[in-house]
């Protein structure tokens, strides 16, 4: 009898980076806490995990990341103050983040790369598949990428990565996948991975973006992975090993994403994300769009 696969319930969010591209704003504030309209970027990521059916969230943090824990904890003084004022709307918004998920935290210690951050999650994850969500990538809630990736993993086993077609001249900024088509139009079989290749050497223009659903076999591979580019343990190298040797932990598939993604790790894209999301808000959008039209017309 075939053993049923374990339903995925755990998500890992690496959040130990220094956020140097946003200095001096991130000198004392974690980059994950920078607001996107009126919520910190990290809350969008946790909400995405929960919406995909992953209520158990482990955040891999580092020094000066205590505000992340505080944000997802209760703030009784603030809640009491809002309750006394009868401000039920703001009270509900404050309580929303602390009620979102079952949150856990572990410190990475030495910043030794994404692969090492994922490896820090091994004691919490155990022997079941899990998701990894990078906080710099915000996926629009109307485009359920992670839910689809979980379904693909449950169907095929192994690991699943998110891919997006990019301008070939930009592929050197990403991990890059060599792929073969499958019978499912937006799902491909990954046959190889290269971290930030020169455009002339890239096997495709399929870039790896910050969503993964991983088989726990990745932990053993990461333990055996030597530091790569930048002296860091690269998750891409471990996934390359799994893609080349499916017997290690199943195949690697990719989901080609064509939806709305906001790269909040880049200053320009961060500002564009705020504008787009603000324009689409029912409470802010109408007035903000009117102002934006006037501003653009005047600047032209």
Automatic annotation (TrEMBL):
CDD domains: UGPase_prokaryotic. It holds the Pfam family NTP_transferase. SUPFAM superfamilies: Nucleotide-diphospho-sugar transferases. One of its GO terms (biological process) is UDP-alpha-D-glucose metabolic process. GO terms for molecular function: UTP:glucose-1-phosphate uridylyltransferase activity. InterPro entries: GalU_uridylyltTrfase_bac/arc, NTP_transferase_dom, Nucleotide-diphossugar_trans. Its EC number is 2.7.7.9. Belongs to the UDPGP type 2 family. This is UTP--glucose-1-phosphate uridylyltransferase. It comes from Streptomyces bingchenggensis (strain BCW-1). The gene is gtaB.
